[in-house]
């Protein structure tokens, strides 16, 4: 390993960072993280902080999960790679599929298609949704509906159903036939409605109107996050996702739950769909499936969808889709160990308790700091602060403000994430009450300086 002078001198010189402008990384060199243990990370200068971002929503079990590390090391010795394309498989991926079937059975999901990550999982679900309708003789069902403010990864399909212009504009034209309805975002919405239940009803009415306008027989699927993550942690009213599911079923439209963030306990329930009592047709997963230790994902498929594919005798159900690393044995071994540890620790209980502690603390900070326009969360360890220049007009804070809060909070002991005017918090699900106190104290310090 090169010394720290080399690393600092060449930080961002020879590679481009995701989700930022190359010039910005050169002008503002990224923090170089060199170590992690438990809920904490350490930078090249030895500064240690609580990771209130949880890597990127994915390090649910922290940075010291030895069973997952051991499983990866052992599998590298046993079988470091083999393809799962037609004709070959491996022992780990078969075992993992059975474990996931058990885990997701309450959601009605009984089959797995393995991927390399969340964007791959979304792309897979979109493709399989179109194919499902073609097998059934409804080839005209090709369109997709989704929510504004929703985030579904970075492939062309995912970018097309994304509801945030930041991930779309530079790459247009995107996939045709993708249409969006308003998100149940009480702080900002076109209906000027602040009551969550009434807003949910208005958004559902907008969905029904869009379906009627497009014609139900042209729509393949509706995709949504049970709780919107990167869009600013938008928690819908409990009636919303069940309402979406009912409308989709009535119109023959498949429901894809993007559970890349919400699966495996982050919401204080084992899945986001289960939180709202919904059984989707597909669920996209990744991130916490291996605790971030190996790039891996899975699309979980409902029994009814599986029956259509498995019962076809025409050849239309042959899946012409997959990834070199679909069902990677090392990833499967990591996922098996991660799933076992996730269950053993019963992380949903801590996610719910620490989420409430953090949410209560953020509301107290809102009472203290005028710059906080909105606090969102209250469902596990998914929370956000929206910063404003003026509470009365809800004018968003200048982008320099959340950036300054992030820098000051880091110095004070916590890594937080900036997304537009939002400060997003998604710490590991093993976070302690003391860690939460540190996060809140660090945020207080950051907010006091703006």
Number of helices: 15
CATH top level of the largest domain is Alpha Beta
Uncertain segments are none
What's the architecture of the largest domain, going by CATH?
3-Layer(aba) Sandwich
CATH topology type of the largest domain: Aspartate Aminotransferase, domain 2
Query: What is the CATH superfamily label of the largest domain?
Result: Type I PLP-dependent aspartate aminotransferase-like (Major domain)
Topology:
Blueprint: H1 4-10, H2 22-27, E1 33-37, E2 40-43, E3 48-51, H3 54-57, H4 66-78, H5 91-104, E4 109-115, H6 118-135, E5 143-147, H7 156-161, E6 178-181, H8 196-214, E7 219-224, H9 240-250, E8 254-258, H10 272-276, E9 282-285, E10 297-302, H11 303-310, H12 329-345, H13 347-368, E11 372-376, E12 383-390, E13 395-396, H14 400-411, E14 414-415, E15 417-419, E16 422-425, H15 433-448
Parallel strand pairs: 3-14, 5-6, 5-7, 7-8, 8-9
Antiparallel strand pairs: 1-2, 2-3, 4-10, 9-10, 11-12, 12-13, 12-16, 15-16
Textual characterization of the structure:
The protein is of the alpha/beta class and 450 residues long. The strands form three sheets. It has a seven-stranded mixed β-sheet with strand order 4-10-9-8-7-5-6, sandwiched between helices. Strands 11, 12, 13, 15 and 16 form a five-stranded antiparallel β-sheet that branches. Helix 7 links the parallel strand 5 (143-147) and strand 6. The protein has helices at 4-10, 22-27, 54-57, 66-78, 91-104, 118-135, 156-161, 196-214, 240-250, 272-276, 303-310, 329-345, 347-368, 400-411, 433-448; strands at residues 33-37, 40-43, 48-51, 109-115, 143-147, 178-181, 219-224, 254-258, 282-285, 297-302, 372-376, 383-390, 395-396, 414-415, 417-419, 422-425.
């Amino acid at each position: 390993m090169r010394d720290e002078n080399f690393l600092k001198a060449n930080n961002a010189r020879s590679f481009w960072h995701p989700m930022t402008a190359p010039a910005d990384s050169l002008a503002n060199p990224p923090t170089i993280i060199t170590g992690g243990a438990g809920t904490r990370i350490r930078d090249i200068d030895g500064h240690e902080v609580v990771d209130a971002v949880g890597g990127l929503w994915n390090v649910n079990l922290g940075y010291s999960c030895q069973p997952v590390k051991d499983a990866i090391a052992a599998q590298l010795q046993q079988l470091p790679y083999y393809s799962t394309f037609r004709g070959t498989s491996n022992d780990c991926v078969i075992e993992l599929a059975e474990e996931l079937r058990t885990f997701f059975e309450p959601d009605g999901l009984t089959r797995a298609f393995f991927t390399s990550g969340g964007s791959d999982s979304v792309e897979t679900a979109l493709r399989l949704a179109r194919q499902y309708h073609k097998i059934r003789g409804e080839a005209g069902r090709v369109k997709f509906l989704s929510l504004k403010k929703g985030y579904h990864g970075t492939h062309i399909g995912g970018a097309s159903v994304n509801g945030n212009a930041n991930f779309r504009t530079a790459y247009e034209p995107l996939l045709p036939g993708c249409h969006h309805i308003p998100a149940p975002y009480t702080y900002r919405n076109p209906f000027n409605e602040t009551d969550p239940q009434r807003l949910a009803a208005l958004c559902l009415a907008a969905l029904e109107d869009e379906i009627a306008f497009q014609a139900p027989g042209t729509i393949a699927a509706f995709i949504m996050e049970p709780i919107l993550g990167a869009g600013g942690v938008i928690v819908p009213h409990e009636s919303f996702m069940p309402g979406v599911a009912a409308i989709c079923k009535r119109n023959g439209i498949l429901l894809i739950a993007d559970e890349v963030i919400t699966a495996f306990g982050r919401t204080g329930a084992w899945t986001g769909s289960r939180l709202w009592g919904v059984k989707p047709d597909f669920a996209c997963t990744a991130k916490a499936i291996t605790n971030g230790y190996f790039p891996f994902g899975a699309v979980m498929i409902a029994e009814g969808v599986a029956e259509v594919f498995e019962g076809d005798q025409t050849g239309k159900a042959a899946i012409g889709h997959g990834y070199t690393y679909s069902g990677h044995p090392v990833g499967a071994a990591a996922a098996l160990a991660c799933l076992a540890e996730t269950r053993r620790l019963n992380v949903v209980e801590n996610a719910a308790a620490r989420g409430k502690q953090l949410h209560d603390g953020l509301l107290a900070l809102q009472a203290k700091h005028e710059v906080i326009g909105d606090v969102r969360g209250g469902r596990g360890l998914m929370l956000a602060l929206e910063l404003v220049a003026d509470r009365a007009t809800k004018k968003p804070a200048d982008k320099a403000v959340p950036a300054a809060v992030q820098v000051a909070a880091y110095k004070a002991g916590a890594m937080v994430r900036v997304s537009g005017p939002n400060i997003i918090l998604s710490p590991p699900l093993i976070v302690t009450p003391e860690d939460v106190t540190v996060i809140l104290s660090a945020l207080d310090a950051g907010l006091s300086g703006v």
